[in-house]
């Protein structure tokens, strides 16, 4: 006979009775327990509805939910902005502050629930047979348990759905009674998810309404009838999406004049509007002591004294007044009259009082201003140095570098021609060289001399190649460095190639463009405590970027990471980074020896160029360190034979190697791309090209047609739309310059050194054998990875074939 709860027996509350009865098996709890369960559930849902802040909903109620369901832990996932993944927002019981990001796909439990929009109730998440019955690709991510030492058993996972709209996933972990979650808990979680979905929708609607009705400094344009409310709303949307100032969009798209914007700004800030005055004259007393850079940074210009005080023209009077910098600059002036102006009129006034800046004017205009400059005779170094210091030439060279940086150029090529032929300047953008401008022959040597002066090279040496570095902050407004190489070429001229080294932050691992398959394998490989891992590829393929993303993933307060780089391009907190300096005798091998005495956990060596560096990397990995480096090789299996050719001991090297990631950068399709359905022949050829290496495996040799059919079904499952596969073709628009491509995407080939690969290394196997075994063990070649990214709509077959042989 089932137990029936009697509220308040023995002086205890019904709540205490409820939590005591949770320990009983479901068939022993009784009907009163069910009533108390729903009463407790009502308390939790009421708290959810009472919480105003969307982010606080689960933080405030997570412990109550765990208590209600007799669960040990829970995790709440929310859908990310592009709706391709779910990200953990609340994790009870986990010490890690790192967010878990899972793709919406059947490869993880929470990902499957988001993908299928169906509830899962599992008695044992380690039961692979049960998981495979639900979906062939379904896996439990055991790595999380391994890292934390926690053992997950039962799991109840439910989608947070508002109709068909997915807001997130609720994951309940481990029943404290060590039994599967019962029907009552399943129903309770379903109701919780429904409540959460309603609460999230209501909060999102409130936030949206508040944002829509928030006052802006351009509302006066609507009141004055200059633009409609709908047009202003569209303008705000366009400005956000294009990364432009709202004023720019108003002027360019809606033809609003600055004089119409000014009164709206005046009403918003509560100060008078100050328009541009073409008759204004520079005052040395006011403007002389203030540098142009300071004025631009602060966002205000002193104009003239008036009965109201010193007139200060600014774009944001509140920020300028709040910073209290103006009284410090003019301590003897008692009163200040702040005036608001438009961004356009501020820039016009700045140019009027301080002259056009380096960025001002087009490159063609600067070239026209240089007309009639020095004639190169190729001999007189003094006259060349004088010409190189010419103001217009200095502006021109700076403008070339600034334009290159703004256009996301990787390399600048200056290519002089002999005689009276013009000097060509080309930019490498997304891996391709595009013409930028041609410079008259008589500026040829003066321009090269100017660049040599900027990187402190010998201007009289024109017969030998020279290398140097420009710290552009000394000459222009950008805090960047350029690596410069001068090379004498036919006709007595010198070519100059400059690589832009823009210091930046590391890219998170999830934004590298790795497929879920490669990302999971990479994370499992690099989280091992010791070993050797290489990233390989040609120059400019993003090896350093990838290494820094991996280091960012591993960079925790309890880890010591040393890096040796030439040059240090990416910086991140927590890393101890060393710059290689060959002139001072500081090379990779020397720094590696020093690192081994500096108590490292992880070592990153920018490049393994010689036997000594590679040997020290193997030695360091075998003595308990995790070592990362790069190689200039074409594929992951080829890297192994290259390293063996350097004289590595095959047994030590096999023990040390964790894996090798080969990568290339392929051009990415612009948003103007066009989708189409491939016909049967095109799809058949696509599958055949993808399976070029797979067909040598046992399963494909046994049943090629069956494996090909399974491959297509898997693609449809992961990348299909309405049960069909779509491919994309380049179109061309203004944003991509008519090419159809904008930006680049990484293609990856990850070889994991398993037992079979280690055995082949010890036997000094040929590349073909290593390649075949790696594919058998789960490696996807560069081309296979690229073709999956074609199905994802990121690139096309033409671009993949350009960078991949097989």
What this model shows, in words?
By secondary structure, the chain is α+β, with helices and mostly antiparallel strands. The strands form 5 sheets. A 7-stranded mixed sheet has the order 18-17-19-20-16-21-24, with helices on both faces. Strands 3-2-1-6-5-4 form a 6-stranded antiparallel sheet, with helices on both faces. The longest helix has 31 residues, at 183-213. The protein is globular. The termini are far apart. Residues 1-11 have low confidence and may be disordered.
Segments where pLDDT lies below 50 for 5+ residues?
A: 1-11
Number of beta-strand segments = 24
What would you report as the Rg, rounded to the nearest angstrom? 33 Å
- Average pLDDT: 85
Structural class: alpha+beta
* Number of H/I helices: 33
Please summarize the sheet with the most strands.
7 strands, mixed
Distance between the termini: 69 Å
């Amino acid at each position: 006979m089932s137990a029936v709860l009697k509220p308040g027996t023995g002086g205890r509350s019904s709540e205490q009775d409820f939590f005591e009865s949770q320990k009983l098996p479901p068939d022993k709890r009784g009907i009163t327990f069910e009533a108390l369960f729903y009463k407790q559930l009502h308390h939790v849902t009421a708290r959810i509805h009472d919480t105003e802040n969307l982010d606080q909903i689960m933080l405030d109620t997570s412990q109550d939910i765990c208590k209600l369901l007799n669960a040990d832990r829970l995790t709440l996932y929310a859908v990310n902005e592009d709706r391709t993944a779910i990200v953990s927002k609340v994790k009870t019981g986990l010490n890690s502050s790192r967010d878990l990001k899972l793709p919406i796909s059947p490869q993880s439990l929470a990902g499957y629930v988001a993908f299928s929009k169906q509830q899962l109730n599992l008695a044992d998440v380690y039961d692979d047979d049960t998981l495979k019955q639900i979906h062939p690709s379904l896996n439990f991510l055991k790595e999380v348990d391994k890292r934390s030492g926690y053992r997950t058993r039962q799991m109840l996972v439910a989608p947070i759905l508002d109709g068909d709209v997915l807001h997130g996933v609720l994951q309940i972990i481990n029943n404290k009674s060590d039994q599967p979650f019962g029907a009552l808990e399943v129903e309770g979680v379903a109701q919780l998810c429904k409540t959460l979905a309603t609460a999230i929708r209501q909060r999102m609607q409130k936030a949206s309404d508040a944002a829509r009705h928030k006052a802006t400094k351009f509302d006066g344009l609507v009141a004055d009838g200059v633009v409609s409310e709908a047009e202003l709303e569209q303008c705000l949307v366009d400005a956000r999406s294009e990364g432009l100032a709202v004023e720019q969009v108003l002027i360019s798209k809606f033809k609003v004049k600055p004089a119409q914007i000014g009164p709206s700004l005046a009403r918003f800030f509560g100060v008078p509007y100050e328009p541009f005055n073409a008759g204004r004259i520079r005052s040395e007393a006011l403007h002389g002591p203030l540098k142009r850079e300071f004025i631009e940074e602060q966002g205000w210009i002193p104009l003239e004294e008036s009965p109201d005080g010193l007139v200060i023209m600014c774009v944001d009077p509140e920020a300028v007044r709040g910073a209290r910098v103006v009284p410090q600059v003019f301590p003897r002036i008692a009163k200040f009259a702040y005036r608001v102006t438009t961004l356009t009129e501020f820039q016009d006034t700045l140019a009027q009082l301080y002259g056009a800046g380096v960025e001002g004017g087009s490159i063609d205009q600067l070239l026209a201003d240089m007309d009639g400059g020095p004639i190169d005779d190729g001999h007189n170094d003094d006259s060349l140095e004088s010409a190189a210091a010419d103001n217009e030439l200095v502006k021109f060279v700076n403008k070339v570098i600034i334009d290159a940086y703004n256009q996301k150029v990787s390399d600048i090529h200056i290519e002089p021609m002999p005689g009276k032929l013009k000097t060509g300047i080309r930019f490498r953008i997304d891996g391709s060289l595009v013409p930028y401008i041609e410079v008259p022959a008589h500026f040829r040597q003066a321009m090269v001399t100017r660049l040599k002066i900027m990187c402190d090279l010998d201007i009289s040496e024109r017969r030998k190649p020279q290398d140097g570095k420009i710290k552009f902050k000394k000459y222009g407004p950008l805090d960047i460095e350029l690596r410069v190489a001068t090379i004498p070429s036919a006709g007595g001229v010198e070519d100059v190639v400059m690589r832009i080294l823009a210091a930046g932050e590391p890219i998170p691992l999830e934004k590298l463009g790795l497929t879920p398959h490669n990302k999971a394998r990479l994370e499992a490989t690099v989280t091992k405590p010791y070993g050797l891992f290489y990233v390989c590829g040609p120059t400019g393929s993003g090896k350093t970027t990838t290494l820094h993303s991996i280091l960012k993933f591993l960079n925790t307060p309890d880890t010591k990471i040393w890096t040796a780089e030439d040059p240090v391009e990416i910086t991140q907190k927590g890393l101890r980074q060393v710059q290689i300096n060959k002139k001072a005798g500081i090379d990779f091998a020397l720094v590696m020896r020093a690192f081994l005495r500096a108590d490292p956990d992880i070592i990153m060596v920018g490049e393994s160029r010689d036997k000594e560096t590679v040997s020290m990397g193997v030695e360091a990995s075998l003595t308990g360190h995790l070592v990362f480096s790069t190689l200039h090789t074409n594929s992951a299996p080829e890297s192994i034979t290259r390293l063996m050719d350097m004289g590595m001991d095959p047994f030590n090297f096999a023990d040390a190697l964790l894996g090798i990631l080969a990568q290339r950068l392929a051009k990415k399709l612009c948003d103007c791309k066009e989708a189409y359905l491939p016909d049967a022949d095109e799809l058949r050829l696509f599958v055949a090209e993808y399976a070029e290496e797979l067909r040598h495996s046992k399963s494909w040799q046994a049943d090629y047609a069956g494996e090909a059919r399974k491959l297509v079904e898997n693609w449809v499952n992961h990348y299909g739309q309405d049960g069909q596969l779509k491919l994309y073709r380049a179109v061309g628009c203004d944003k991509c310059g008519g090419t159809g491509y904008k930006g680049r995407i990484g293609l990856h080939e990850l070889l994991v050194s398993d037992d079979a690969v280690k055995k082949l290394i010890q036997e000094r196997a040929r590349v073909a054998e290593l390649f075949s075994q790696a594919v058998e063990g789960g490696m996807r070649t560069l081309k296979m990875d690229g073709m999956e990214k074609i199905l994802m709509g990121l690139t096309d077959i033409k671009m993949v074939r350009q960078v991949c042989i097989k």
